[in-house]
Amino acid sequence: MDPILSLDGLEDTFFRHMQRSREIMTAAARKTGIVLDRRYADHCPDPGHPECPERMDVLSNMIQEPGMGEHFRVITPRKAVKEELIAVHSRDYIQCLEDTEGKACTFLDADTRTSPFSHDTALLAAGGLCRAIDLVIAGDLDNAFALVRPPGHHAERSKAMGFCLYNNVAIGVRHAQNHHGLERILVLDWDLHHGNGTQHCFEDDPSVVYFSIHQASSFPGSGKRREIGKGAGRGMTVNIPLLPGNGDKEYLALFEKILKPVAIEFQPELILVSAGFDIHIDDPLGRMRVTPRGFAAMTRSVLNTADVVCGGRVLMTLEGGYDLKGLQDSVRAVLRELAGLQTTNIEDIMAGADLEKLRVLLWQIRRVHGRHWKRLAQSLAAETNHAPSIAARLKEAAARIGAYLKS
């Protein structure tokens, strides 16, 4: 017997045993922090803009519900400092954003604009995440969720984009590396839209895995399967563009079949999540079908993996999510999972997953990434030993063309 396969089998058995034990036991309480501050409502792009201050209102109201707020430590944010910003953004771009302070409205692109206090709010968003990272790495908290705005994953080194000013998650990664000496960090992005700014920041960096599941043919148009990184970072970018209409079961299957083996092989010291809730079934900007239960299951999958690879250290930061009720319900479900107030049985959800629906995608992912991730190739072997039929591949291609034409 191959000794490597034997070791893999033992580790997989151990992982499954931990997961089953966790699900049959009462959820263990975790120390969970929340970055939350009324000043995050001071960024006011425009009346009717989907990335609106009311997003903070519904989340603040939810935290104040009976049985919620007392289980979380509220983290007061600080402003990101120049040293943290220039680790990700150019000095000219930082100056451009500073110049918007106090001005009624500055258009940075067709979708992204500022109000008088937008720059201060953006500094608090990036700095709030950095403060949460400090507390988790120090062991004061087990995990945390930065409920911040504006979002960040579209922001490029020298350009605002897609409602984003500073790239909060990228600034958080560099802060963890530069101030805490972390050598391996995994960034998971489950937002509806591909995080172009985050990918570009780390695509040649072997110390960071960027893993994105996003709606195919949607804004900003990046995130193709074959975008796998460059140079020393080749293979460290994993993009999974999904057709519209996928929901809880499909997302969870991809977390378990693709994210988990990559994370176990990479062994990150910290997992950062760009948590977008525009994949919610009622979101006005997307066509995915994830429910609050699905978000809870995705969070449980991430926590299970984090318990194995990095002592449970998970930091989430808010990205999209524009149906206010869907945002509130879904963030509540994620927070309850993070704090151990509930433990979603992911095996029940996985049992109903139609892997045949994902077979072409899984086969394509194995072809692109199997050479870079041994565990991923093994995880997908059962579903992808035989290539899908020509008819199945043509059907998938036609569906992607249809999704592009509708986008």
Name some characteristics of this structure.
407 residues; alpha/beta; Arginase, Chain A; eight-stranded parallel β-sheet; two-stranded antiparallel sheet; 15 helices; 10 strands; globular
What does this structure look like?
With 407 residues, the protein is α/β, with parallel strands linked by helices. The protein has a single domain (29-353), classed as Histone deacetylase domain (Arginase, Chain A, 3-Layer(aba) Sandwich), CATH 3.40.800. 44% of the residues lie in helices and 11% in strands. The chain is built from 15 helices and ten strands. Strands 2-1-5-10-9-6-7-8 form an eight-stranded parallel sheet, with helices on both faces. Strand 1 (32-35), helix 2 (54-63) and strand 2 (72-75) form a beta-alpha-beta unit. Helix 2 (54-63) packs across helix 10 (324-338). It is globular, with a radius of gyration of 20 Å. It starts with a helix and ends with a helix. Residues 1-7 and 21-26 have low confidence and may be disordered.
**How many alpha or pi helices?**
15
Domain unit count: 1
Structural class by SSE content: alpha/beta
CATH topology (level 3) name: Arginase, Chain A
Regions with little confidence, pLDDT below 50 for 5+ residues: 1-7, 21-26
Q: What Rg, in angstroms, do the CA atoms define?
A: 20 Å
The CATH architecture comes to 3-Layer(aba) Sandwich
What string gives the helices and strands in order?
HEHEHHEEHEHEHEEHEHEHHHHHH
Main β sheet profile: 8 strands, parallel
Bin the strand percentage.
Answer: 5-15%
State the separation between the terminal residues, measured CA to CA: 50 Å
Secondary structure: number of strands: 10
User: Mean pLDDT, nearest integer?
Assistant: 92
Overall 3D geometry? globular
Just give the CATH class: Alpha Beta
Strand arrangement across the biggest beta sheet = 2-1-5-10-9-6-7-8
